[in-house]
Amino acid sequence: MHSFGGIYFFVLTSGYLYVIIYNRMQNKRDREELSHLRSTLRDRLAELRRILKVVFGRSALVKGNVYELARKCGKPNCICTRGQLHRSMVLTWSEKGKGRLLSLPSKRVAEVKRKSEEYLRFRRVRARVTEIHGEILVLLDRIERLRREEPLG
Ligand SMILES: [Zn+2]
Q1: Against a cut of 0.85, is the pTM above it?
Q2: Which of 50, 73, 77, 113 is the most buried (most CB within 10 A)?
Q3: DSSP calls for 55-107
Q4: Which contiguous run of DSSP H or E holds residue 27?
Q5: Are 8 and 117 in contact (CB under 8 A)?
């Protein structure tokens, strides 16, 4: 009975030690992963702060692309039928699925181009914010999982 008790005690003890060692390793890995997750979260927040500057800007945004259009006018004896196409700067954009085009007076070209480039930047930032939003939620879920503990555990 005594020796049985001794073996039992030994098994219990080694089981206990094993649990402690295992938990320590697990905790170390968890702490390292948590630290990595926090650092990634900080990176994403810093990126948000940086890219949202475009959104906090005050300049006007013009939807569309500015480019030079070369075309024939359709008059039968025009110079454009002999290869000299009419060139003009235009803004194109889509509205309710329809392509729109606007000829730009030359004195407005630079300004509209700048505003349309700012619009593109704004839209790119918006797309990235959507991605970061998803990434942050994944990070929060992983951090929650690592920090959770059973009550009285
Ligand atoms: Zn012509």
Answers
A1: no
A2: 113
A3: HH--S----SEEEEEEE----TTSGGGGT--EEEEEEEEEETTEEEEEE--HH
A4: helix 2-51
A5: no
Which residues are placed with Cβ below 5 angstroms of ligand 1, an ion? 73, 78, 80
Give residue 147 CA to ligand 1 midpoint distance, Å: 72
Ligand 1 centroid from CA 58, angstroms: 41
Q: Tens digit of pLDDT per residue, the chain (153 long)?
A: 444 444 555 556 666 666 666 666 678 888 999 999 999 999 999 999 999 999 999 999 999 999 999 989 999 999 999 989 999 999 999 999 999 999 999 999 999 999 999 999 999 999 999 999 999 999 999 999 999 988 876
Q: Are 129 and 51 in contact (CB under 8 A)?
A: yes
Sign of CA dihedral 69, 74, 79, 84: positive
Using alpha carbons only, how large is the chain's radius of gyration in Å? 33
How far does residue 67's CA lie from ligand 1's centre (Å)? 19
Q: Which residue has the tokens 């110079």?
A: 79
